[in-house]
């Protein structure tokens, strides 16, 4: 469950968009590659105490790399409420950026899928262009990016329609 402490009392979360599961498959491929390199290291250098130490060092560094990569993908998300869009991006380890804009500032919502795997597995790039200093909020490996873009646009349109009727009254 998502816990956003700075939501206003009347604000509710409409949708949360996180990364597609394909990023975990990519991390698993990295893991298999590391096992292959580790086995090759034993075959080439034979078994000695130096080889064991080198292999332990490589696995420690690689485990740290995998954890940081997993964390970077796991903590990236769009949160769309009935008033604003919040973009939480884990840039690197212990480096996070949180951007938010009101729905009336959203100018454009784009979705792009390319290549064979993206079309088969239904993921792509979702970007939201806003009318403020960071013009584009972009998420790669977004699941069902076309449907997510449509839903965000519908939320923006509903917000604008409801505020147009309030202003015209």
What would you note in describing this structure?
The protein is an alpha+beta fold and 169 residues long. The chain contains 4 helices and 7 strands; from the N terminus they run E-H-H-E-E-E-E-H-E-E-H. The radius of gyration is 21 Å and the shape is elongated. The model has no long low-confidence stretch (mean pLDDT 86). Strand 6 and strand 7 form a beta hairpin.
Task: Sum this structure up briefly.
The chain is of the alpha+beta class and 169 residues long. The chain is built from 4 helices and 7 strands. The strands form 2 sheets. It has a 4-stranded antiparallel beta sheet. A 3-stranded antiparallel beta sheet has the order 5-6-7.
Keywords, separated by commas or semicolons:
3-stranded antiparallel beta sheet; single chain; alpha+beta; 169 residues; elongated; 4-stranded antiparallel beta sheet; 30% strand; 48% helix
Number of strands: 7
What is the succession of H and E elements? EHHEEEEHEEH
What radius of gyration results from the CA coordinates? 21 Å
Structural class: alpha+beta
Mean pLDDT over all positions: 86
| β-sheet strand percentage | 25-35%
* Order of strands, widest sheet: 1-2-3-4
Let me know the largest β-sheet. Answer: 4 strands, antiparallel
Number of helices: 4
Euclidean distance between termini CA atoms: 38 Å
Q: What characteristic shape results from the CA principal axes?
A: elongated
The helical percent reads: 40-55%
Name the poorly predicted regions.
none
Q: Which quaternary structure do these chains form?
A: single chain
């Amino acid at each position: 469950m998502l816990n956003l402490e700075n939501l206003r009392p009347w604000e509710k979360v409409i949708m949360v968009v996180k990364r597609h599961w394909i990023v975990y498959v990519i991390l698993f491929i990295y893991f298999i590659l590391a096992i292959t390199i580790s086995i090759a290291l034993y075959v080439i250098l034979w078994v000695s105490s130096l080889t064991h130490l080198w292999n332990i060092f490589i696995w420690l560094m690689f485990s740290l790399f995998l954890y940081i990569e997993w964390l970077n993908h796991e903590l990236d998300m769009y949160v769309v409420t009935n008033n604003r869009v919040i973009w939480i991006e884990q840039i690197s380890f212990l480096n996070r950026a949180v951007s938010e804009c009101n729905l009336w500032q959203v100018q454009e919502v784009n979705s792009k899928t390319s290549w064979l795997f993206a079309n088969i597995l239904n993921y792509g790039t979702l970007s939201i262009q806003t009318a403020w200093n960071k013009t584009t909020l972009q998420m790669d490996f977004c699941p069902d990016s076309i449907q997510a873009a449509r839903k965000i646009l519908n939320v923006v349109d509903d917000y604008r329609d409801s505020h147009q009727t309030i202003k015209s009254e």
